[in-house]
Amino acid sequence: MRAQLALVGVALTATLSGCAAATPTTATPPPTATASPSPARVITIAVPKATSAAPALTNTGTSWLPILTSLSAYGQWLLANPNPALVGTVATPGCAVANLLSEQINGLLDSHAYVKTSPAAITSVLGPSPATGTQVVLDVVAARPAEPVISRSGARTISTFDAFPQSSLQVTLDLGADRRWRFCAVESAADDGATDDPSVPLI
């Protein structure tokens, strides 16, 4: 904290006979010390080596079922091999799916854990063909089994990602500059929310 210094002029007048008036004096402030702010402490969490190769992506064109299956499989691989730097491979940064996947991956890294994944069961996908613009909304029916979260150190179950029951969904995909589709949002078909609302945890 910085000290507040006041310059005080003190005039002393002699009250005893024969004493002269004292000369007013001015206090000289000490030099102000300048403290350099401490650098922010950066904590780096090591990303574990992947236990398997990433699945090949099929996310171009308008064959929506293979595209959605491929994107989902890559997202599942990321939960089994947490690496936040790869989220943008399958989800548009800033969109709901990217936010959810990043939170899940960072939580897994903090807990030194991974997910023993099960593929989503996608039974129906309807979408425009040909696609126009850089965003499409697909009508999807899908489900996902429960998935245990496993400790890397002790190979024990520490929690579980709850099963996602078969549901009608609206899945929004974005077309990137590389002409590849990526997740933006996964919402209940009854939800009219924006694409930055919390995503349905289908992956």
From TrEMBL:
Domain of life: Bacteria
Signal peptide: 1-22
Keywords carried by this UniProt record: Signal
Name of the molecule in the record: Lipoprotein
